[in-house]
Amino acid sequence: MNLINRPFFVFDQWRCNSWFFSVLGLLIALMAGWVIGTKGVLGGLTVVAVPMAICLGIGILVQPKFGLFLYVNLSFVIGFARFLPRDTPMGTGLDAILLLSLLGTFLNGKQMDWKQLKQPVLWVLIVWLSYTILEYFNPEAPHRPAWFYNVRSFSLSWFFIAIIVMVNPISRKDIRVFITIWLVWSFLAALWAFKQQYIRLEPAELAWLAEGGARTHILWGQLRSFSFYSDAGQFGSEMAGVTLICLVLFFERTSWLHRIAYLILGVILFWGFAVSGTRGALFVILPGYPTYLFLSRNLMNIVRGIAVAAPILALLMFTSIGDSNYQIFRIRSALRPTEDASFLVRLENQEKLSHYLKKKPFGAGIGTSSGAGNRFSPNHFAAQIPTDSWYVQLWIETGVVGLTLYLMMLVGIILIGTYKIWHLNDPRLITLMIALLAEFVGIATVSYTNPILGQFPTSTIIFISSILFTTCNRWDTPKHLNYANRN
């Protein structure tokens, strides 16, 4: 091109582009005005939300790790769904973020460490995923499309998260950020629960109670705080889980400033567990704490841990001190399940299920019980029996074969995590991984009493933390460099 004519060419091109963007901007403005004019406030929110969603989508595709952290945060925000219209697709939005993060991982393939997919935990998850896929063809299933609604929490989300966490360039700093996000949201949840318990409930929360929540959340005139979680059972279990995390970090940190901070936070979170009135949540701490002592392989830790736990357990089991306080009374009653009418009812329901499932080794089909069952096949026997437990739900929908595979998967993850942690050199990394594994054991145990392992945000936290502690060797440092990582 002639250099003399080039400036005129550039000017013409700029003028053409400016006309194009001006016309495009005008059309967008007219469309936005029309949407706001016809849809009102909802239209205004849509006009703001759509560009934000597009920007977020592009950001996730460019940086999948950003999508993972967004997924974690929104897993807590989803609890505010009771403040939104019933048809707000919060769960679908979370699924979209997870899929975008997975797509972004593949699009940025050159930056990913694909060798990490050789980790044993992925093969354990593949076995379970394969079984749940085969369950789609279960001849007992009354409504096959319902399979999609529950398979996400059963296996798909865990598998997708595993790939994202394994191959993305996750750093030690990212792990600390993940735990910090978790603790901050848990602290806010505890404060919200205190507001419910000691100040007042919001209109949307009162409406939720009136629509049926009061049957399980107001007992003897006493509110079971549920914060912004799905219910008090999940809230209480999550509070017990993060209390355990704070307990481990309190014992393992060398800085007294850090210890005092974790102690104060642990007390706040423990009282959050108490005001939930969720007795079963105590079984997050009861197995999780000994798991921490076992994994630490430190005699002084074990002696110190027993010295702290034994008197508290003895007071709860063999005395009635504090029974005048409703929360303490509820916690103490968890240690006497045979005296609990609701526990005996659960055993009766499980006895009925055992007869129903006796000739159904592969279950009634995924999506036949709980919420999906009530929605798609409400007259089916499986939908009419309260599950009250994550494992009972798995038993109903995948049969004794599926439940056995699932429990084997959990045991496999715990064993892999134990092996990996015991071969680490870095003391600070060891502390974080022990805390995550101890909490995993606690949540896996309490899931017998509450179906929390498939609910947000517990599922998100458990899925991510399980991949972190089963692949923790990739962040380890040689022994001679460990001094740089001490507190």
Automatic annotation (TrEMBL):
The keyword Lipid metabolism does not apply. It comes from the Bacteria. It is a multi-pass membrane protein. Residues 266-407 form the O-antigen ligase-related domain. It is found in: Membrane. It holds the Pfam family Wzy_C. The chain crosses the membrane at residues 16-36, 42-61, 68-84, 90-109, 121-137, 149-168, 175-194, 232-251, 256-274, 302-321, 394-417, 429-448. The keyword Membrane applies. GO terms for cellular component: membrane. InterPro entries: O-antigen_ligase-rel_domated (IPR007016), WaaL-like (IPR051533). Its main location: membrane. This is O-antigen polymerase. Keywords: Membrane, Transmembrane, Transmembrane helix.
